[in-house]
Design goal:
Number of helices: 0
Helix content: under 10%
Structural class: mainly beta
Distance between the termini: 57 Å
Largest sheet: 6 strands, antiparallel
Shape: globular
Strand content: 25-35%
Number of strands: 36
Strand order of the largest sheet: 15-14-13-12-9-20
């Protein structure tokens, strides 16, 4: 059963429809089921003509040939029958179920097999943190409470609540009481916090142990994960991925650094420490540039003249410069410059102010999906071997900072993440 949540996601079996799958044989990205992460790739908008549009690439959900088993892609909207869909007429509530003691209902040890016990555990944060899916419940319009692809099932009095394959019976339907209790439709027993993290069904009483609060994930502030054309990221400011795990920070030392918020380690940086850079800006010409207060360019993405319209900090730890149709023009795994020092000014002006650092990088014309041998499959980047478009090969492997190996290097501090080599 597909459930439609108010955050714009379409959920099946505890996962989200994601528009950034591998390319189909005809080049369009396949729609896949993926762990929900709050990204644009998983948000959809229903239109009056029954089309469903991806917030990521502006294309429509397309059933291709309309046959059972055929792949589903996103294609340019054309209004044909393959792009007409009947979505659920009612939204499903999606979030966490919190007991009076502040603990969240979850499956034991994160398991999803039928028969797994339901218990209470410390609420995980951020909402889309690894492992947090065991606490993500969908209260569907049919009255079921779903976690992963299973339904919460009630039993006799004092029996532990478990998850089972959804079968449409009353034992899997839960009714809300005015006192915030949840009643099993089959037995009239209430979901009860037994203490010691156990969840059972018991005779309903006006008890705090039977009071439950359904908490929805707080929507991220608009633009919290991205830069728009003309927008600056000043010293001390940052952008955070939708799942809260990664942060792109403009530091006071002039370095632009991507941090893992869990490990506090730096995953990428612009190597502009001590260059006088004070802000980053996504220019209206498509170039992403770091400038000093005097207007000197200290680093840029080599994408001036492209159609780039947003720089996004993604939930997969990547930073990607996208066009309106999700064409990627730059990402953090692109190879380092192979001819010029980072931050060295060369001839030619960056439209707007200052000088353009290094040479212009060619930009892709065909959006495809890259995949690293190590299993980093959600890169959503141009793949090696793509049609001739000037895209540099995707650099795979452990996503650590990899400066160009040249003579004349010295160590520089990245602010809390230890020492790294930078070019001088």
């Amino acid at each position: 059963m597909v459930t439609s949540a108010q955050d714009g996601t379409l959920r099946v079996h505890g996962k989200c429809l994601d528009a950034a799958g591998a390319p189909a044989p005809w080049g369009r990205p396949l729609v896949r089921l993926w762990s929900c992460d709050g990204s644009d790739q998983q948000r959809w908008q229903a239109r009056p003509d029954r089309s469903v549009v991806s917030a990521w690439n502006g294309s429509c959900l397309d059933g291709t040939f309309g046959r059972a088993g055929d792949p589903v892609t996103t294609d340019p909207c054309h209004g044909g029958d393959s792009q007409k869909w009947d979505l659920p007429t009612r939204y499903a509530d999606f979030g966490t179920l919190v007991g009076a003691g502040g603990k969240c209902l979850e499956t034991a040890d994160g398991h999803s097999e039928a028969g797994t016990a339901v218990r209470l555990g410390a609420c995980l944060s951020p909402f889309y943190a690894p492992g947090a899916a065991r606490q993500h419940l969908t209260h569907a319009p049919d009255g079921t409470l779903r976690v992963f692809d299973k339904c919460l099932a009630s039993g006799d009095a004092d029996s532990t609540v478990v998850v089972k394959v959804c079968d449409g019976t009353d034992s899997q339907r839960w009714l809300s009481r005015p006192d915030h209790g949840l009643v099993a439709a089959s037995t009239g027993l209430c979901l009860h916090d037994e203490g010691d993290y156990a969840a059972v069904t018991r005779t309903c009483t006006p008890s705090a142990a039977q009071a439950w609060r359904f908490t929805k994930p707080a929507p991220a502030p608009v633009g919290a994960d991205r830069l728009s054309p003309g927008e600056r990221l000043a010293s001390g400011q940052s952008k955070t991925s939708p799942n809260g795990l990664y942060r792109l920070a403009m530091q006071s030392d002039g370095n632009l650094v991507l941090y893992d918020n869990t490990t506090r380690q730096a995953l990428w940086n612009s190597f502009t420490f001590d260059t006088g850079a004070t802000y980053a800006v996504l220019q209206t010409d498509g170039n992403f540039v770091l400038y000093s207060d005097s207007g000197q360019a200290r680093w840029d993405s080599h994408t001036w003249g492209s159609a780039a319209t947003r720089l996004v900090v993604q939930s997969d730890s990547n930073i990607v410069l996208y066009g309106p149709d999700a064409t990627p023009y730059w990402h953090r795994w692109m190879r380092p410059r192979d001819s010029q020092e980072v931050g060295q000014a060369v001839a030619g002006q960056v439209p707007g102010a200052g000088t353009r650092s290094c040479r212009r990088r060619e930009v892709p014309v065909t959006p495809t999906v890259g995949q690293c041998p190590s299993g980093d499959s959600a890169l959503r980047l141009p793949a090696a071997g793509a049609p001739a478009s000037g895209v540099k090969d995707l650099e795979c492997g452990n996503p650590v900072i990899r400066p160009v190996r040249r003579s004349g290097r010295r160590r520089s501090h990245l602010g809390g993440s230890g020492w790294r080599w930078r070019e001088v």
